[in-house]
Amino acid sequence: MKFTKMHGAGNDYIYVDCFSQTTPERLSNLARTVADRHFGIGGDGLVLICPSESCDAEMRMFNADGSPSEMCGNAIRCVAKYLYDRDIVRKDTLRVESAGQEFKLELSVNDGLVDQVRVDMGEPILAADQIPTTLTGDPPTDVSFPLSDRDLRVTCVSMGNPHCVTFVNEITDELVRCVGPRIENDVHFPNRVNVEFVEVINRQELRQRTWERGSGETLACGTGASAVCVAGVLTGRSEREVTIHLLGGDLQLEWNEKDNHVYKTGPAVDVFSGEWLC
């Protein structure tokens, strides 16, 4: 199996081109194996770049634990770069589907290669039963989320996958790595949840760390940054256009007031290519 490792702001996945080769079998098991950072290639998960009947391509993705994921805002930028740079689809604007949803991507090209991509992430999903969460509110906004040893306030949003955002005075390792997995698996989230811890620098700048459902802490989360942008507006903490600083780099976010869509701009980077022999 030929593969390419790519990252968007440090959120790294193993990409498999299913235009030129047969789709692998036992995908959940394959994702767990190749994503292992000690015994595999290493990454936050596995992404298949597949032909599509309605779009330029389809993205299928799996988390590092083998569970399927609906969407990744960083991975889909890398899919666009892969398609363009390798002459599979040579257009400045692409349409890629993921889990039945279509996304429009505008490419920034320098010296014949894509370096930045602007993604129309669509409208945020704010109905609690569609996020899904059993917390109250549509969406739950700055609601109390009691744990045995602390009481957080959280805002829940779906960007095609579920997110729980909490604004804190200081993001700590203990919050992300200990509290994060507790929230991910809490009974209020029937499909588990991605967890964002956010510091407000000012109304145009936020700092974010994410505990991702099925992958643990990642250096960036594109759908998470989109959810954070929405949560910042809903709670009155930030403007509709913000720069979000993540461990792996910066993303530019806009929750457009006219069409209600969230737009995200960030990098897409090749790391290396190889052949998986196991």
Characterize the structure shown.
With 278 residues, the protein is α+β, with helices and mostly antiparallel strands. The longest helix is centred in the N-terminal third of the chain and has 13 residues, at 73-85. The relative contact order is 0.17. The radius of gyration is 18 Å and the shape is globular. The chain has helices at residues 27-35, 73-85, 173-184, 222-234, and strands at residues 2-8, 11-17, 45-50, 57-63, 68-69, 93-98, 101-110, 113-122, 143-147, 150-158, 162-167, 194-202, 205-212, 216-218, 241-246, 249-255, 262-267, 269-275. It contains four helices and 18 strands. The protein has an 18-stranded mixed sheet that branches. The chain has two domains: 2-119 and 267-275, Diaminopimelate Epimerase, Chain A, domain 1; 128-260, Roll (Diaminopimelate Epimerase, Chain A, domain 1), CATH 3.10.310. The mean pLDDT is 97. Helices cover 17% and strands 44% of the residues.
Largest sheet: 18 strands, mixed
Whole-Å distance between the termini?
A: 9 Å
Percent helix range = 10-25%
Alpha-beta content class = alpha+beta
CA-based gyration radius: 18 Å
CATH structural class of the largest domain: Alpha Beta
- CATH topology annotation of the largest domain: Diaminopimelate Epimerase, Chain A, domain 1
Supply the CATH superfamily name of the largest domain: Diaminopimelate Epimerase, Chain A, domain 1
Q: Which architecture of the largest domain would the CATH scheme give at its second level?
A: Roll
Element order: H for helix, E for strand:
EEHEEEHEEEEEEHEEEHEEEE
Tally of DSSP helical segments: 4
Shape: globular
Uncertain runs are none
Please give the domain count: 2
